Amino acid sequence: MSKTKVLVVEDYLPLVETLEYQLKRAGYEVFRATDGREALKQAKLQLPDLIVLDVDLPILSGVEVCKQLRANPATQSCLIMMLSALGEESDQVVGFAMGADDYVLKPVESYKVLLQKIKALLRRREPTVDDAESVTQSGVTVDRRRFVATIDGEVLKLTKSEFRLLETLIRQPGRAFDRNELVEAALGEDTLVLERTIDVHIRALRKKMNDSADLIETVRGIGYRFREHESSAHEDEEVAVAEEA
């Protein structure tokens, strides 16, 4: 069986060497890049399962690299864990909005914890056998086997988290999920995230759904649900349809 590939993108050599040592020790195949341009090149060449991506990089920032990785069909499904010394909530929101699957603050205080977070991310890639492989509601189709989501036949370019979130909602239309349920179902029960991370993913998902964005309804005081075919946001006073397109 081939090893899981991890691309470490970091320009601080001592951290690169430590990360490479810890990851190889854990059984991963590790590649390096020290600037944004090289990161994009290595990602296309190696097609890693996971990219550990520093935010503050030479030539191209980590945020721009993340954006370009998500825009490229060849690399859009790679898991991305961003590393940054910028710990403000707004910095993390930007990272998630650009398509990051997780956001870890530097300095790394525990490599054991970091490796557990990496394992948790990689578990999202594992296939599941329960439920139908494909489900369609209101013109939206989610195909788990092919990892493809479409609206009226047009493919959506979704991150792993956005895909899992849409799949969770669409399989039970009409059911209101609270944010904790969505973190567990769509992102993984051992994911460490901000309280409003789900809101960031929902906004990004709705934006990509364009005219179908209102199929994902905000249930006031609870969370979100995928609208049932026969329901309407105007008929339910407890529902606030997305304001963002």
Automatic annotation (TrEMBL):
GO terms for cellular component: cytosol; protein-DNA complex. Residues 132-228 form the OmpR/PhoB-type domain. The keyword Amino-acid biosynthesis does not apply. GO terms for biological process: regulation of DNA-templated transcription. Transmembrane segments: none annotated. The keyword Lyase does not apply. This is Two component transcriptional regulator PhoB, winged helix family.
